[in-house]
Amino acid sequence: MHFLFLRIAMIIAAIGSHSSLQILKGAKRENFTTAIIVERNRESFYRRFSFIDKFLPYGNYDEALNHVNSLKDAVLVPHGSLIEYLGMERTKKISIPIFGNRNLFEWESNQKKKMSLLEKSGIKVPQSFESVEDVDRLVIVKLPGAKGGKGYFLARNKSELKEGISKLLEKKAIKSVDEVIIQEYVIGIPMYFQFFYSPILHRVELTGIDIRYETNVDGLRRLPWSMDISPTFVVAGNIPVVARESLLPKAYDYADKLVNTTKELVPPGMIGPFSLESVVTDDLEIVVFEFSGRIVAGTNLYINGSPYSWLYWDEPMCVGRRIAREINMAMERNRLSEVTT
Question: What are its E.C. numbers (predicted)?
C-alpha cells in the first residue's frame, strides 16, 4: 500500500499490550499525538499514563480493527501482540499505514518460512527436522505465531517427541504436525540481539540485547533437587545483557545479511526494529534460532536508552522513541512512504 501524507499533526497508535507503553512514551517525546486501542478491562491501567492522548476501548477484536481503521492521519506501530490478538486475516484488513513492512507478518507467523529467510541469508541456524523419524538428538518443538513460548517443549528422543505432539493435537493447540517446527536444541546461553534498520539513514543500529525470563525452565534452576518436571518456555519478563565486544561484529554481519535478504525476497525489506534471537555456544559461535521483524518486548528494558543506543544518539533513545524519530525524519524529507506500508 502507498499513502500520501501532509505535514500535519500525526497520530502514532498502538494496540494496548506488549511494548505499547514504550512506543507511545517515545512518540510523545517526539511530539506526536498518541492513541491506544485497548481492551476495556485494561483501560483503567493505561489511563494512569499522561503521555497517552486518545483511548479507543474495545470489547472484541472486530471492534479493535474498526478502531484502528477509524484513525485519521495516523500510523500504527505493530508489536508482538498485533497478530496474536487480531489474527492474520484481520491484520490484512488494516487500512491505515503501518510503520514497517506489513509483508513480513505472514513470514513471521510461519516458523518454517521464517527459518528459510535466515538460511537464505547465510546465517547459522540450528538443524531442523522435517520428520519425527529423523530426530536423533535433543530438540525443541515450537508452535506457530507469537505466543511468548507457550506450548514449546523439549524432547530427548522420538518417543518423547511423538508424545508431546500428540498432547498438542489433543489440546487442539495445533491442527497437524506440519504446523510445528522441530529444531535442534543448541546448548549455550541465550542472547537476543535487538536491531533497527533505518531506510532514512541507510544503517543498521544495535539498540540492545536481552535474555527472556521464562517461568518454568528458569524456575526449575531454583530447586536444589531433581524433579520429574518438563521445562516449558512461557516468557514472563526480560533481563538486560551486555555482550563481550568481540561478539558484536558477527551479530552485525548477520543483521546486515538479513536486511539485504528481506529487500530481495520480501520487498520493501526490513524497516525499523527487528531481533535476532540467538544462542551463544561455548566456542562463542552465534546460532540464530528465530527472528522477529518488529519491536520485541525485551526493548522495554531500555526505556531510557541502552548501552548501545548511546553509541548513536547523545540522548535517551528507547526503540519506541527511535521509531518516532524515524517517522519524524521521514516526514521532514517527504519520504514517509519509505518507512510505512
Answer: 6.3.4.23
The predicted model scores a pTM of: 0.89
CATH of segment(s) 11-99 = 3.40.50.20
CATH superfamily of 111-123+187-338: ATP-grasp fold, B domain (3.30.470.20)
Judge whether 84 is annotated as a binding position.
no
Tens digits of residue pLDDT in 245-270: 999 999 999 999 999 999 999 999 99
Q: How far apart are CA 25 and CA 32, in angstroms?
A: 10
Residue 238, annotated ligand binder?
yes
Averaged pLDDT, 135-147: 77
Answer yes or no: are the C-beta atoms of 254 and 233 closer than 8 Å: no
89 HSE (CA, 13 A, CB side) = 2
CA 180 to chain centre: 19
For 128-184, the fitting CATH number among 3.30.1490.20, 3.40.50.1440, 3.10.50.30, 3.10.129.10 is 3.30.1490.20
